[in-house]
Amino acid sequence: MNIHEYQAKELFEKFGVATPPGKVAATAEEAGKIAEELGGAGLVVKAQVHAGGRGKGTFKNGFKGGVHVINTAAEAQDIAGKMLGQTLVTHQTGPEGKLVSKVLVAKAVDISKEYYFAILFDRGSSGHALIASTEGGMNIEEVAEKTPEKITKEFVHPTIGLQAYQARKVAASLGLKGPLANQAVKLFTALWNLYLKSDCSLVEVNPLAITTDNQVVALDAKFNFDDNALYRQKDVVAMRDTTEEDPREVAASEFGLNYIGLDGNIACLVNGAGLAMSTMDIIKLHGGEPANFLDVGGGASKEQVTAAFKIILGDPNVKGILVNIFGGIMDCNIIATGIIAAAQEVSLTIPLVVRLEGNNVEAGKKTLAESGLAITSADGLTDAAQKIVAAVAQAA
Ligand code: ADP
Ligand code: MG
Predict the structure, then answer these.
(1) Among 152, 207, 247, 380, who pairs with 136 as Cys (CB 3.0-4.6 Å)?
(2) Which annotated residues bind Mg(2+) (predicted)?
């Protein structure tokens, strides 16, 4: 789950991470009022979307830049008016862009230098890592590729937590000394507390800025939260903005389904992420293109399969469905009954290939065969992939 920059700012304030004051607005008039409250001059207006690269982005109406420095309340209102209700395209949004329905009005600072700083979950070390670079404000993937020596990585043990010497080491790697180093250490420590207490998997501050009056402040924020911990993060869940997410993924999450849309035409419905990955692979191996990743988890109940079919069929590119279910604890016959009921409920008209394996598989296959529906049974992964690829090719 992600949040907006203005919401990240609220978390920053709660955990004592230094950041310029600001407030969110949903209308141009509101933006003007906030600008007045903040003193009118020396402010920034920033488009709020779940994507970076806003500064260099362009709106579809031709207006340039999702981040503007302004110097009067009237100007804030004018700029907000040009952003709100418009679609911003950045290198992270894809060509379709993202609709801006809120703007942040915040104090501008005079930047003397920009840095990159992040804390993230690091699978490689089974722990956490602090990442810092003197190349702030830039695309960090590009820095990592071209000048990896400009990136510092400090690993944090999950039970010991961030140690003061580690925060100092990272500050030193950025060339910060004296009071600036102290401020950076304070900010890193506050951010670490925020990261840990809020069950984040990533907090990225790009840029972390040093101002001309020697303050260390976070000017931008990107957050990712561990979805498995959201049950104990009510405040975080309350920040969720589903309008920023793929509507199919939102619908899927309501039924405990993991769905990710792709651009092929063969939809897959699978239980277990590993099996889902191999199903997508085998479809490709046999010349097909998967339309999605869809993991129904351990269950595959009638309700889940029906919801999954509906989501799958909402994609106009889908020309066939491959169901690949392993009945472990679940009985294949119950799954087969669920698939039939779901196919009937959505009045399925495109080819459906079902591969069942495991507990009570023979009964499951018999149920499918006797259903009277045009369901093709398959034996094994290869047979399943070949059958669905052939069926889709034939239908085309
Ligand atoms: P994005 O990464 O989406 O482009 P940022 O929040 O990083 O958005 O803003 C882009 C640039 O705008 C920053 O690198 C910084 O130079 C400038 N900027 C952002 N916020 C402020 C601020 N409060 N004061 C001064 N400059 C800012
Ligand atoms: Mg940024």
Answers:
(1) 207
(2) 206, 220
